[in-house]
Amino acid sequence: MYNLKHRFLAFLGFVFFTFLSLIISFFAFESLFGYLHKMPVFVFSAWSFFAALSPLVVMPFLLMVVPVIIYGRKVSIKLGKQLMVFSFLSLVLIVVLMILFSTLYKEHLNNQGYTRCQGVPMGWTPGMATKYAIDASKCSD
What is the pLDDT of residue 51? Predict the structure, then answer.
């Protein structure tokens, strides 16, 4: 059994990580919707897709804290296993969908006439994003 102090700290952690997960997802969806607009130059990252769906992986872990907050005891082993399986399957599904989305979207960009710019976009880690431009002369901007 957890005392009131532990339950309160668990509640604060639950609220913080839920809020953090939803904020990350919100900005990732905003980035994904930005890909639908035909801009002359933009940076594409397949990881935006992963970030947008990341609450499916994070939330099962946060749900394991709910019995601590409400009842003051750990989650049952059966429910814990089910939540872990859901989280793992969500992770695998998100990675597969991310790869599929990236492949299809890059093909769509080629069909729209976009050119892949050389180098790493400013502010990004190598391999995490690619800059695209409708005209190759705009790649240096």
Answer: 95
Sign of CA dihedral 85, 66, 21, 6: negative
Stretches where the chain sits below pLDDT 70 are 141
First to last CA, the chain: 60
Listed in order, strand segments (DSSP E) in 28-86 are 41-44
- C-alpha–C-alpha distance, residues 68 and 41, integer Å: 49
Q: What is the pLDDT of residue 124?
A: 86
Q: Which residues contact 58 (CB under 8 A, 6 or more apart)?
A: 17, 21, 87
- Residue 115 neighbours by CB under 8 Å, 6+ apart: 132, 133, 134, 135, 136, 139
CA 80 – CA 10 distance, rounded (Å): 17
Alpha-carbon distance of 54 to 91, in angstroms, equals 8
